[in-house]
Amino acid sequence: MREIFRKRILFIIILLGLWEATALTGIFPRMMFPTLGSIWQAFKSGIFGGELIDNASFSLYLIIIGLVISVFLTIILSTVAIMSRTFDDFINTAVAVMDPLPGIALLPLAILWFGTGQKAIIFIIVHSTLWPMILNTVTGFKTVPPIYKEVGENIGLRGPRLVLGIMVPAAFPYLLTGVKIGWSRAWRALIAAEMVFGTAGVSGGLGWYIYQQRYLMDISGVFAALVVIVIIGILVEDLLFGYIEKKTIKRWGMTV
């Protein structure tokens, strides 16, 4: 993980250097292509003023609720799909139809059903994360070699003990990949939904913050919010998911 972290730092340094060099050439208007110093000032002002922290906390709150609901539904639907061939075909059809459908395309319906509030955003997050998580979970269970199940049954494992003791660990790389895809999709859906709701006057979240700064032509503030999203993404990817991978997949010698 340290090697990956070092590469990320090197990539970010190179990217920042290119950005600053381009900004200083004056090819693009300074207001549209701010320098790193201007972005840093906007970032510092947003952090110490509490506005960025409050909006980031609100966005994370909505994402966590949406992901928890998606994980709960994924467990139920995937379990039924594994147990029933008919329901498995139904789930495959539902994934094929719903997964390519962008969450933002359902936003008018979500507003109609739930209004311009948290429920509509959570609905969009659940829709955007549920289908890839189901697809990975069902695929993971299907790829477990039958001999694993036979070994578990031979040592006396049945029912939930067989699932938790054999099936889940064997399919874990797929399960974790599904959660990681859900996490990234949740951010995309959330920011898009919050920016649209911003036009309806409902405040809250980093998407709303970005919309506000764009409306005020504070492009440095827009980039400051994007920096916060990138930092959260790197921390969750490298620290949380990296730690889980280290303690499970890598320790067990498994790969997807």
What topology emerges from the helices and strands here?
Layout: H1 2-25, H2 36-48, H3 51-83, H4 85-98, H5 107-114, H6 118-142, H7 146-154, H8 159-198, H9 206-215, H10 219-247
Helix pairs in contact: 2-10, 3-4, 3-6, 3-8, 3-9, 4-6, 5-6, 6-8, 7-8, 8-9, 8-10, 9-10
Q: Write down the secondary-structure element order.
A: HHHHHHHHHH
The whole-angstrom Rg is 22 Å
> So what's the overall shape?
globular
Distance from N terminus to C terminus (CA atoms, Å) equals 18 Å
- Output the CATH topology: MetI-like fold
Q: What is the number of helices?
A: 10
Strand tally: 0
* Percent in strands: under 5%
- As residue ranges, the low-confidence spans are none
Main location: membrane
GO cellular component, one term: plasma membrane
Subcellular location: Cell membrane
Protein name: Binding-protein-dependent transport system inner membrane protein
